[in-house]
């Protein structure tokens, strides 16, 4: 029995050993497989991590990193107009960020910040365990350095590859920068919601203050936002923001950064965010002006990246107060319109408004709308006439006239018959009176006497650059197509003694560090003799005192200006100035629809001009009178507006400036009690000027001119309607002056010829072009 039992035991032992040997083999093999697999995974993982690392910025490249910075645009007093950005950010040095803000961020986001080397492995384990036990993601493990790496170089996608890249970059950041520099970069790079990137933008957005002025309550609220800016937005979710703020305060107490009492006081403070609004890539302040300098200069010169990411400082010429006054004034128009204001001595743009609502229409009517100025162009016609030798006191017929303009496309006779507003005529009038009341037929006659080329030359010298100025007599009535900015620039010659100025809107552009990239100085030169421009200005002052521009009058100030109205009342203008400022108001519909029969420059544009300038003058030094002009050989003289002689007590008088040696020496013999004999002997007495058309109509030639009469010979087809004829004694010959070089018979269409007209683009076309430019420069609305 015992031998049999021993044998069984031996057999069982052998069997057990075999089983153990098999199990050991299996386990060993499994272990080998695991080790080999681990080695493979380690090698593959290592290679994968190395490939990821190779695709990331090196430490040297990290050291050269420059974040996107907002370009800031300032007004002439260095007040911020707007910011241009893809990420709204202004860099702040760490020493300008209060300790309470630094501590709040560390308490909220990374309490071990000063201990780890970029990645906090203990925090990763804690977060893993917390998330596993809770069944959901409750806690993150990204350090401040990792968050900085993600915001500087990576996307927000939640993948393993991104987390590995983040860790690699965090280590490199720690190897490249000090903890203080990393914290500074973090506070300037991180997103705080509502378009605010960095601590400066956040402070401006939420509290309208500088970072250095933050309180504990404000700092902890901002620090709480960082985790989820939209979720903890104090504007949209104030309760969530308050709960998160309380958490940050509690963490600061636990870390010994503040006392419990400080925390309680901070929680009780009610913060107001009613003024909070989301910054936009587009511009809420002075939008038409910003659009003008952006697409006219900044983007073409510097490119989108530098303008929207380079932190440029753009110092402009506008005054924000004057700009706002213009934006308010234009709302008084029932139609669309534009307002431009310039410093006439420098050409600096003080205000520029291209429409009533930039959000509805990007069409900048101040710079893009080519419109006919109508009678607002007449001062340049009369200035050219004065250059030729005509005077404000000389007489011209205000009467109907017609020009044969060939045949039209249907073979029918084409007659151009310019007429006056209202269809009334006044016979023989002084050039001054014609200017004051804007008589069209006088302007045409003076244009014919002066010569079209002389008018065009003066207009170009004054600053008109439009290609749409017709070389025919219709230009005397303002048929050129020009922009409001162009007209304002040209009108400066009447305020600055004849100097042409180049309008500009930027004074200088610098880097964020203050390095000047470019600067602009006024460009001007003497374009028209000062005797001419001061005389015209004084004539336009009479326009405001007693003529079509009466509604632009500002008590206590010398004001000059001229109204303009176009055919069918489609455009209304007032252009003029006071000492130190020239302004233009334009009113009109984009589709050229009529403004109505009351849609004249005097009734629509002049009141808006008055309201704007009256307010604008409060913001810049404005003299009440223009500078002394005695050095220009001009003299102030009181003349009879109707006859042109020196004014007597009963004359309708006007005070104007005239070149020395051209003024009459005798008193008006009609109203003022002067003698006809003295008037006849006065070498500077007013002259009756006959245009070539008058010569043709009256049958008068240069050789048979001395007929003292203002009525045409009997039997002529065209009768000149005379309201107040001047009848001199029969023994006196009326002085009649003929043009030096009779102008050839013109072809004078009422409007510019088809080929000279600008393409009339619709607002929809302008908006489309605006969006094309945005796309071209990589900008989104």
TrEMBL record:
UniProt-listed InterPro entries: Beta-lactam/transpept-like, Glyco_trans_51, Glycosyltr_51/Transpeptidase, Lysozyme-like_dom_sf, PBP_transglycosylase, PCN-bd_Tpept
Catalytic activities: [GlcNAc-(1->4)-Mur2Ac(oyl-L-Ala-gamma-D-Glu-L-Lys-D-Ala-D-Ala)](n)-di-trans,octa-cis-undecaprenyl diphosphate + beta-D-GlcNAc-(1->4)-Mur2Ac(oyl-L-Ala-gamma-D-Glu-L-Lys-D-Ala-D-Ala)-di-trans,octa-cis-undecaprenyl diphosphate = [GlcNAc-(1->4)-Mur2Ac(oyl-L-Ala-gamma-D-Glu-L-Lys-D-Ala-D-Ala)](n+1)-di-trans,octa-cis-undecaprenyl diphosphate + di-trans,octa-cis-undecaprenyl diphosphate + H(+); Preferential cleavage: (Ac)2-L-Lys-D-Ala-|-D-Ala. Also transpeptidation of peptidyl-alanyl moieties that are N-acyl substituents of D-alanine
Recorded coiled-coil stretches: none
Keyword Hydrolase: yes
Transmembrane region(s): 21-49
Penicillin-binding protein transpeptidase domain segment(s): 337-611
Region feature (Disordered): 731-767
Residue spans of biased composition, Basic and acidic residues class: 754-767
Gene Ontology biological-process annotations: cell wall organization; peptidoglycan biosynthetic process; proteolysis; regulation of cell shape
Keyword terms of this UniProt record: Carboxypeptidase, Cell shape, Cell wall biogenesis/degradation, Glycosyltransferase, Hydrolase, Membrane, Multifunctional enzyme, Peptidoglycan synthesis, Protease, Transferase, Transmembrane, Transmembrane helix
Entry EC number(s): 2.4.1.129
Molecular function GO labels: penicillin binding; peptidoglycan glycosyltransferase activity; serine-type D-Ala-D-Ala carboxypeptidase activity
Any one Pfam family match given in the protein's UniProt record, by short name: Transpeptidase
Domain Glycosyl transferase family: 79-252
A GO cellular component annotation in the UniProt record: outer membrane-bounded periplasmic space
Family indicated by similarity: In the N-terminal section; belongs to the glycosyltransferase 51 family. In the C-terminal section; belongs to the transpeptidase family.
Protein name: Penicillin-binding protein, 1A family
Species the sequence originates in: Thermovirga lienii (strain ATCC BAA-1197 / DSM 17291 / Cas60314)
């Amino acid at each position: 029995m015992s031998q049999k039992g021993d044998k069984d035991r031996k057999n069982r032992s052998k069997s057990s050993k075999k089983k153990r040997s098999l199990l050991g083999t299996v386990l060993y093999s499994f272990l080998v497989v695991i080790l080999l697999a681990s080695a493979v995974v380690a090698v593959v993982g290592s290679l994968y991590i190395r490939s990821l690392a190779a695709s990331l910025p090196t430490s040297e490249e990290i050291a050269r990193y420059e974040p996107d910075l907002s370009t800031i645009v300032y007004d002439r007093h260095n007040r911020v107009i707007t910011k241009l950005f893809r990420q709204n950010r202004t860099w702040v040095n760490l020493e300008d960020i209060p300790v309470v803000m630094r501590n709040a961020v560390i308490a909220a986001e990374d309490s071990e910040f000063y201990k780890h080397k970029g990645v906090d492995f203990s925090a990763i384990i804690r977060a893993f365990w917390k998330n596993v036990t809770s069944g959901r993601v409750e806690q993150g493990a990204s350090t401040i350095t990792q968050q900085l790496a993600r915001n500087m170089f990576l996307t927000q996608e939640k993948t393993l590859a991104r987390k590995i890249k983040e860790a690699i970059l965090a280590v490199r950041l720690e190897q490249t920068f000090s903890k203080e520099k990393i914290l500074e970069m973090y506070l300037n790079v991180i997103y705080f919601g509502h378009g605010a990137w960095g601590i400066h933008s956040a402070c401006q957005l939420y509290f309208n203050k500088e970072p250095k002025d933050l309180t504990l309550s404000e700092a902890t609220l901002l620090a709480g936002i960082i985790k989820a800016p939209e979720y903890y937005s104090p504007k949209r979710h104030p309760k969530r923001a308050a709960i998160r703020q309380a958490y940050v305060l509690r963490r600061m107490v636990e870390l010994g950064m503040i006392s419990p009492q400080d925390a309680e006081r901070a929680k009780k403070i009610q913060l107001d965010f009613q003024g909070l609004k989301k910054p936009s890539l587009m511009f809420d302040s002075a939008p038409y002006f910003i659009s003008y300098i952006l697409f006219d200069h900044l983007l073409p010169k510097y490119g989108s990246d530098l303008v929207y990411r380079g932190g440029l400082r753009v110092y402009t010429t506008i005054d924000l107060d004057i700009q706002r006054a213009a934006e308010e004034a234009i709302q008084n128009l029932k139609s669309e319109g534009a307002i431009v204001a310039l410093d006439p001595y420098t050409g600096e743009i003080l205000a520029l408004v291209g429409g009533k609502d930039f959000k509805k229409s990007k069409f900048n009517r101040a710079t893009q709308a080519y419109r006919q100025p109508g009678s607002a162009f007449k001062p340049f016609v009369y200035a050219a006439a004065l250059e030729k030798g005509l005077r404000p006191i000389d007489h011209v017929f205000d009467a109907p006239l017609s020009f044969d303009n060939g045949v039209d496309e249907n073979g029918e006779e084409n007659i151009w018959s310019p007429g006056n507003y209202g269809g009334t005529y006044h016979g023989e009038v002084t050039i001054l009176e014609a200017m004051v009341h804007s008589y069209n037929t006088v302007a045409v006659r003076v244009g014919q006497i002066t010569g079209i080329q002389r008018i065009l030359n003066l207009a170009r010298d004054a600053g008109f650059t439009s290609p749409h100025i017709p070389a025919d007599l219709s230009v005397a009535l303002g048929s050129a197509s020009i922009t409001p900015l162009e007209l304002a620039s040209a009108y400066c010659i009447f305020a600055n003694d004849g100097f042409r100025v180049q309008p500009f809107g930027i004074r200088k552009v610098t880097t964020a560090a203050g390095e000047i990239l470019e600067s602009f100085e006024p460009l001007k030169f003497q374009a028209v003799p000062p005797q001419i421009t001061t005389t015209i200005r004084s004539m336009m002052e009479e326009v405001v005192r007693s003529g079509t521009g009466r509604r632009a009058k500002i008590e206590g100030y010398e004001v000059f200006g001229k109204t303009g109205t176009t055919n069918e009342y489609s455009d209304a203008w007032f252009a003029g100035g006071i000492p130190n400022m020239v302004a233009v108001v334009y009113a009109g519909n984009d589709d050229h629809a009529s403004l109505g029969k009351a849609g004249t420059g005097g009734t629509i544009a002049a009141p808006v001009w008055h309201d704007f300038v009256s307010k604008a003058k409060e913001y810049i030094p404005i003299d009440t009178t223009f500078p002394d002009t005695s050095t220009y050989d001009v003299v102030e003289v009181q003349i009879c507006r109707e006859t042109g002689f020196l004014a007597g007590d009963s004359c309708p008088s006007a005070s104007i400036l005239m070149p020395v040696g051209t003024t009459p020496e005798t008193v008006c013999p009609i109203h003022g009690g002067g003698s006809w004999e003295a008037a006849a002997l006065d070498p500077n007495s007013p002259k009756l000027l006959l245009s070539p058309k008058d010569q043709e109509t009256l049958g008068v030639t240069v050789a048979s001119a001395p007929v003292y009469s203002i009525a045409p010979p009997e039997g002529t087809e065209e009768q000149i309607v005379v309201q107040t004829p001047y009848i001199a004694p029969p023994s006196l010959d009326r002085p009649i002056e003929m043009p030096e070089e009779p102008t050839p018979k013109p072809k004078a269409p009422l409007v510019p010829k088809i080929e000279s007209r600008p393409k009339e683009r619709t607002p929809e076309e302008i908006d489309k072009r605006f969006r094309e430019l945005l796309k071209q420069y990589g900008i989104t609305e």
